[in-house]
Amino acid sequence: MHIHEFADCCEFAQEAIGGTIPATQEYRDFVKNLHSKQILNMQVIIPFYEVRFQYETIRKNLRTGKKYFFASNGEHEDIDLEIGMKLENSVDYEKKLQENAIFGKYY
């Protein structure tokens, strides 16, 4: 990935920049102007999880699914809770999309 593409994907921790949107854009622009030899740690490590889950369909059939999770806050003791919350939000969002499609609701 080119440094410009990487910079566009970056979000910066509040502790590092004060957490404001203009500061984030300022740092993105700053990173875009760096030369690769100016960056000390060329390898960025982000924990990546495969989340397997089971659910029951409306017709009472058991299904399994997989989703993937980037632990952007690093690994910590509550990672299971964080993944569970993200999975729950994802399922709620998908249910809402299905309901809207069934009942013809459009926003």
Unreliably modeled segments: none
| Helix and strand sequence | HHHEEH
| Spatial separation of the terminal alpha carbons | 35 Å
Strand order, largest beta sheet: 1-2
| Count of extended strands | 2
Name the shape in a single word: elongated
What proportion of the residues is helical, as a percent range?
Answer: 40-55%
Structural class: alpha+beta
Write the topology of this structure.
Layout: H1 3-9, H2 14-17, H3 21-32, E1 48-56, E2 62-70, H4 79-103
Antiparallel strand pairs: 1-2
Explain how this protein is built:
The longest helix is centred in the last third of the chain and has 25 residues. Helices cover 45% and strands 17% of the residues. Helix 1 runs antiparallel to helix 3. A two-stranded antiparallel sheet has the order 1-2.
Brief account:
By secondary structure, this protein is of the alpha+beta class.
Main attributes of the structure:
elongated, alpha+beta, 107 residues, two-stranded antiparallel ribbon
